[in-house]
Amino acid sequence: MDEGVRVITVQGEPEAEAFCELLRQNGIECAHRLTEEEDSAFENFGPDGMREILVHPSDLDAARALLNEQ
Known about the structure:
This protein has helices at about 15-25, 60-70; strands at about 5-10, 30-35, 50-55.
């Protein structure tokens, strides 16, 4: 995804996949990647680290609203 913006940071790939699936089911394209944040309280929490979920800037408000419902 080019020019994605972060919606939320989660604890690992399984959780990131679950959130992305929810977004996709609601018509919001998303991707996730490892965060580059070093000083997180969750640093080294789990096998693959913290992940940030990215969406297109135009979908940011809708994605936040949807994820806040969960």
